[in-house]
Structure formats: structure tokens, C-alpha cells
Amino acid sequence: MVAMQRRDFVKRVGLGALAFTVGGTEVMLTPSQAYAQGVPYKVLTAEEAKTLNAVCETLLPGAQRAGVTHFVDHQLAVPADQSFLMARVANVQPPFINIYRGGLGAINRSAQAMHGKRFEELDAKTQYTFIDAMRQNKIEGWAGPPGPFIYFLMRHDAVDVVYGTVEGIESLGTPYMAHIAPPTRWEA
Amino acid sequence: MSADKVDLLIVGAGASGSLYAAVLAKAGKKVLILEQGPDWKHADMVSNEIWGRRLKGGAPVTLEGKDKMGYGYNSGYGSGGSAAHYFAMFPRMLPSDFNMKSAHGRGLDWPMSYAELAPYYDRVAQDIGISGDAKAEERWRPPGQAYPMPPLPTFRHGDVWLKGFDALGIKTARATVGINSREFKGRPACVYDGWCNAGCPTGALANPQSTYLKEAREAGAVLKNGCTVTRVLTNAKGDRVTGVEYYDEKKQKQVQEASVVLIAAFVSQAPRLLLNSANDKHPNGLSNKNGLVGRYLMAHTGSTIWGMFDEPDVQNYMGTLAPMHWSYDRYAKTSRKNAFGSTLWHCSPAIKPNDIGGIANARNDLFGQPLADFIKKASKQLARLQAFCEELPDADNRVDLDTSRKDEFGLPMARMTHTYDADAMGLWQAGVDEGLEIAKAAGAKDYWAIRGAPTIHMAGGTAMGKSAADSVCDGYGRTHEIGNLFLSGASVFPTEGAVNPTYTIYAVSLRGAEHMVKNWASIAA
After folding, report:
1. Which of the pair, A186 or B313, is modelled with greater confidence?
2. Which of B274, B299, B432, B498 could form a disulfide with B455 if both were Cys (CB 3.0 to 4.6 A apart)?
3. Mutation target among A56, A57, A81, A176 for the B interface, most CBs of B within 10 A
4. Average pLDDT, integer, range A45-70
5. Surface of B (464-493) touching A: CB under 8 A
6. d(CA B15, CA B81)
């Protein structure tokens, strides 16, 4: 056994700042700040972002406030070979917006068919039950990319923004120990 | 326009291509490496799983079959290839891996024996720095040289499994790894922070940036990034290659002449390049008269067991991504009652919350508050045990061309078709069953197996062999049909054992590169 050496602690840089355009000027904001300020999306539509937010918040509490939609939106806006999304590692064919759009569309079509509402309009308990059925591929009439795979991808996005960061790892009471801290910009 | 002719043109700057470049450049040859992806430097290796994804992926492929290849997380994109993000877990293949066909009538034979390859394993250890206990390992293999560094220290989340192994009578040894347990050749010792998967920037882990690629550049080899090789060109008779056609970083088509061409482009792209290089003298692709280019694709199943230990802190955030302990006790091909092939037990990697090998994926059924609660608890109490299980070569598991999908240069993409057979699934299930017993005996409070057999590692596609009838190249990677066209890397493996491929890639490549230097006059003539 080696005694753990706590060293190289880095400043809390969170998810790092992204370049967002606000009022015609490029500013650096973290996804969380961008979400709080309501910065416009580059690729997702406002409606898609609402659904993605609700799905990711259901998958892991805190994902919305951590700025999951602005994180995903930014990664969808860069060329696929520069993207940080799990979609890249999970062999999704670019452009990655297609699987997000397909998944979110299928979720809302099923939510409408089952409950007469979009996913984000459902109460929390119904949202939880819906995702539980989706992950097991048990939604009748599902029309879109396989539900379990959408669950896999969006769950990874939620875990990435909540726990895949300096703040997230330290929030668990474990040391981050970076050699090279995540930069303040998220562009490759 | 053709640039100045080079002696050796290498396609791909991964583990194997970097080694060849170092050996040939040191021998005074003019070496050029063309690499599709970016030139990752140590400074790019940001300590974060999300950033680490930039090192993965590469040319898009079509994936088919029941057990699709894990291309995106096994492959590499840019300098270092997949060895830019590998874990440097360095088990050797054993003598029984090299003559499976002769001994058991299963799989394929290698064109060399363990005894022929063993000196190269030993030399690679001295070259790049390996930490391990050779004496302990010699319980399972013939004796050789000592490793230059002692094994890495262990942490509690690895040691928790030892009681379980003992209870089942499974003997273990400290794992052999390409990671420094102390300073080696000016490179520092590891500090056990578990960021190996994002690329090691300190030099403690033997990635190509710290070893062969660095040596290659220092010896004058030139690396050009952003260059996609589309075809290997031959003379009119079709008996010699003359160079390659490629698209440079500005997407301009170029021709590069070379005396010798080495394809070190990994399991998906090596066969694709041979097939896409078809011409009137080689209508089925280069070195493919027997139709074996692309055949015998292999992966490893991983029987993965997670255990939650009722201890305040097993320090699972410390360590490396390589294991602390391992066992070859189930490596004999007939170890398992109902399935043929080898199994290697190993434990325990450092664990981060996110990404493929992270805490969240240990219970992929959980979401919402139960997921948050699980991650919190697991961040101090979770440990992993895994068995790598062999897959035998099957001609139907293959890489071919997907003519329905073209890349940006108009060439058909690679299609990887892969399904595990009954032996592979039988080994995986036996590993799951035994792993659960180990976990129980180890005293884990909760323990469970991951459902479904994953596809870990990739090998095969341009198998080496003794005869031109049943392989694509010989034991030195020389293609049977064209004397100055070579192959290297995991694609040349006829079988894969139950071990991570890279240590063997280095050993086979060192043997091939030195053979190339020694026989240069006849090869390049």
C-alpha cells in the first residue's frame, strides 16, 4: 500500500469555459453559466434543448444546472473529430446531431402517444417511469434510434457534466490529481 | 507531384509504426510516417476522461454482426495511435499460443515459436521500461531476463481480491506493466493518479510519445500528420510497390515514392488499404490472391465483476489503468470444461466516475437519485475484477469494404463484421461464474457481473503465417505477393491469446524491423 499523496491540486475550473456569442460579442462562459444566462443554442433547437434538459435531469439530478444542454450543443457544433461526446467513442456515425434529434423526437412522440404531452411537460414521477421503460426497450410503438442506446448516450452526457469534472470528482470527496488541468476553453 | 523518394514509408504512427521508424531511422534510412490524425504531444494529454476522447476514434467504419467491434474506444486517432491512450498492461503471450493448430487442431499457428519471440519481449522491456516480477511470472512461462524495474505498488482496491483468489486456489503475481515504478532513462516514476486513459503526459507510461516515436524523430524520421493514405501503388508488373497516394493536411492529393512501404494502420484500416489498392494485376486487392485479407478479426470478451467492499476507503481513485495483480492459472487452452481457449484474470484499475470504464457504467441500470447515491458510495468502496477471454480466429469475422459508404476522398469505408462463437461465449460465462465465486470469497458486501460480453482489443485481418496459401504475410510482416510491401501491428496476429496486444506488437515489430535492416539490400532492391 502506498499512502495517497494529495498533490497537484488544481483550481476549480469546472467544465471549463466555452466561447458563446452574446449580443454579437464572443464571451467565455462555462456551460453552467451559459445555461443560467439563457445563451442561444448553436445546433439544438430551443424545443430540443428543453427535452434534452428534462431527460438528462431525470437521468442524473444536477445535469441541468451543470449545463448539459450547452455542453452537448457546443460539442455538436464542432467537427466530429474534435467532439468530446460519448457518441464518438460509441461508434455513432457523424453528424452526431442526427442521433440526438432522432432520440429526442422518438421520446416526444412516445410521450405524446402515452400521455398527450411532451416529455418535459410530464411530472417527475412519470418522467422517471418513462425513462425506465425506454432503457429496457419497453415502450410500445417506439420509432427512432433504439431506446436503450439513447439512454446510454444521454446518461453519459449527464454523468460527464456532473461528475467528469474537477468539481464533480472533488464533490465525491476524492482528489482530482491532474497532471494537466482541463483548460479553460473546451475547444480542441 | 511526387516528393523526394524515401527509403521507408510507414502508414500510421501508432505503437508499431513508431517502433519501425525508430529502428530504421537509427540504421540510417530515410523514413517518412504518414498519420491521419493530429500530432498529439504530451501537453495535449489533459487529465480528464472527456478530453481523452480526442485520442480515440479515427476513420469512420461500418460495424456489423451480433457482437460489434468496440472500434471507437479501442482505436487511436493521431500520433501514438491507440497506444496514446492505452493502459500499458503488458502480459506476454505464452508458448501454447503459438502452435494452437498443431497442438489442438484449433485456430491458426504463428510462423514463429515463443522461444523465437522471447528475446524480443526481453529487449522491449529494456528499451521502453517495464515494471514487473519476471520470477513470479515464470510460474507460467519459460525463464527470461529480469524486468528493469520492480512491480508497481498496490492499493487496497486491488489487494481486496487476493483473499478470493486464494480461496479458489488461483495463484497470482504482480502485474507486468509499461509504467515506471521508479525513474527510468530520465522519465519519472508514476504518481498513480489513474489518468492513463486520457494519455500520460509525464513520461511515466511508455506511450510512443515517450519512447519509440520520440526516438524515431530524434534519429531523423519525419512524421506528417493530417495525411490520409488512400492507395498503395505498384509498378506495371504488379510485383513491387512504388509508393503511396495520399491526401495531405490541405486535402490535396499527393504521391509519395518509397523503396519499401509498411502498413501499420491497425486492424480496420490495414485490410481496407490493401483492398482499396486493387489494380489490374491485383484485382482482389494487394496480397489477396487467397482472399484472406480482412479475415480472422478477433476481440477479447471481458468477464467483468464489480464488488462493493464494506470499508471506509479502498482508494479506488488511486493506481493506474493497468492491473495490480493477475493470474495465468486459467490460461491453458483446455482450462474450462465446455469452452476452448485461454483466460487471464486481472484486477484492479483506478476508477473515475465517468466514461466507459467509470463508476456510472458499473451499474448501467441505475439512473436518477439512485445513480447519484451509487456513485457517491462507489467512489470509496468499489473495486473491479476482470477476465480477458480468448476468441479464436474465424474467417467469417472480417474487415471488407462497405461500398455503400465512401469517405471524403471517395473511397469505400471499412466494414467490420464480428460475432462471438460458442467457445468465446463459453469462456466468458465461465469467467463470470468463477469471478462471482472469487468476489464472494473475497468478502465483497455486494458483487455482480456485467451482462453481455464486450469486445475489448482488436486483432487480425492481415494474418501472418508460414505459407502463402493460408496467410497474408510472413513472420516478418512481408506480404507473400509483393516483396517490398510489409504489414505490422495487431492486424498481423493469427491468434490473440487472452492478453492485451501491445507488448506482443512491440516484440513482433522489433523482430520485423531488425530483419528489415539486416536484409535491406534484398528487400529494397
Report:
1. B313
2. B299
3. A81
4. 97
5. none
6. 7
Residues of chain B with pLDDT under 50: 1
- Residues of chain A in contact with residue B156, where contact means CB-CB under 8 angstroms, are 1
Contact B53/A at CB under 8 A = yes
From CA A88, how far away is CA A95, in angstroms rounded? 10
Residue A12 domain flag: no
Residue B57 pLDDT = 87
Residue whose entry in the numeric block shows the C-alpha cell 540510417: B28
Range of the domain at A122: 18-171
CB A87 within 8 A of CB A155: no
pLDDT-above-70 percentage for chain A: 82
CATH topology of domain B2-524: FAD/NAD(P)-binding domain (3.50.50)
Tell me, what's the pLDDT at B275? 98
Identify the closest residue of chain A to B196 by CA–CA distance: A179
Secondary structure of B46-93 in HEC code, one letter for each residue: CCCHHHHHHHCCCCCEEEECCCCCCHHHHCCCCCCHHHHCCCCECCCC
For chain B, the structural domain boundaries read: 2-524
Length of chain A: 188
What ipTM describes this predicted complex?
Answer: 0.95
Q: Which three cell numbers stand for residue B297?
A: 478479426
Grid coordinates standing for A65?
Answer: 444546472
Contact A88 B57 (CB under 8 A): yes
- Tell whether A182 is covered by a domain: no
Interchain proximity B154–A1, CB inside 8 Å: yes
Minimum-distance CB partner of A89 among B53, B315, B368: B53
Angle between helices A68-77 and A147-163 (to 10 degrees): 110
- Look at the block and give the residue holding cell 525463464: B143
Q: Looking at chain A, which residue has its C-alpha nearest residue B156?
A: A1
- Does the pLDDT of residue A184 top 60, yes or no? no
